[in-house]
């Protein structure tokens, strides 16, 4: 591999690109720039892909103010009745303080509420509100479309293999 941008396949995003917004970064490799060993590094390529995928996610979720951690929390709360904050943090792989932040933001949006726990009188259980249930239903469909869009250039077998390989890295 020469490490030059011209030897790398083009982005899977359409050729028609929207202008960059304030704070966004163009992650396409620049023609004529020698990236040296960078393009051969797994972490470097994962990070570039993650930036592109994250931006598409944020664009898709903007009307709902949903970020990846908020979506993950809503899904986990929806599928795990009586889930407590510490359990949510552990399931998301984040610090309890991070989970508090996520839940507080979802509460402000009207998507999540704290309820009395049926199993532990000292703790609150988390639940989606009716508005949260409705929003989750809509955003799940949009996120599935986002996922199909970002992986459109991969076959089903390649998508499955990529998920398996990423799980092995994690």
UniProtKB/TrEMBL annotation:
Gene3D superfamilies: Winged helix-like DNA-binding domain superfamily/Winged helix DNA-binding domain
One Pfam family per UniProt: MarR_2
InterPro entries the UniProt entry points to: HTH_MarR-typ (IPR000835), Tscrpt_reg_MarR-type_CS (IPR023187), WH-like_DNA-bd_sf (IPR036388), WH_DNA-bd_sf (IPR036390)
SMART domains (alphabetical): HTH_MARR
PROSITE patterns the record matches: HTH_MARR_1 (PS01117), HTH_MARR_2 (PS50995)
Domain of life (superkingdom): Bacteria
Keywords of the record: DNA-binding, Transcription, Transcription regulation
Compositional bias annotation for Low complexity: 1-14
Ranges of residues in domain HTH marR-type: 35-170
Name by which UniProt lists this protein: MarR family winged helix-turn-helix transcriptional regulator
